[in-house]
Amino acid sequence: MKLKAIGSISVLILILFVLSCQSEENLEFERYYSNGAVVYQAHCQNCHGANGEGLSALIPPLTDSVFLKNNKNALACYVKFGLKGQISIKGKTFDDAMPANDLSPMEVAQVLTFAGNSFGNKLNTIDIQQVEAGLGKCK
């Protein structure tokens, strides 16, 4: 019985040790990503869907990694100020306007980190400095 308890405690200590060894970069990503999931659910999911699938020909999906990578510097502008005009995603054209959002730069960074690393995308952390730089270039 004592041996089982010691073994269990040893395994628990090992697990805690491994978890505590995460880099600051990984921890930052996890904070942005998890908070971004909450922002996405509150502000984006209604239109873009729980799985980023969009809505037929009306609302574009968030599953096109190529579009996201090619427009990475403009994504903050799209989220904060909306998007008007035609865009093409996976060979489909979308022309409906995306409304502006009253999100802080941190919330924009968080939701971009979430969407940019969900639905098959791998954009890594999009931090607040990148978002503020991007917002400074909005047209």
Commentary on this structure:
The model has no long low-confidence stretch (mean pLDDT 90). This protein has 7 helices and 2 strands, in the order αααααββαα. 54% of the residues lie in helices and 4% in strands. It has a single domain (24-135), classed as Cytochrome Bc1 Complex, Chain D, domain 2 (Orthogonal Bundle). With 139 residues, it is mostly helical. A two-stranded antiparallel sheet has the order 1-2. It starts with a helix and ends with a helix.
What is the CATH homology-level superfamily? Cytochrome c-like domain
Query: The CATH topology is what?
Result: Cytochrome Bc1 Complex, Chain D, domain 2
Secondary structure class reads mainly alpha
| Broad shape | elongated
CATH architecture: Orthogonal Bundle
* Domain unit count: 1
Strand order of the largest sheet: 1-2
CATH level 1 class label? Mainly Alpha
Which stretches of 5+ consecutive residues score pLDDT under 50? none
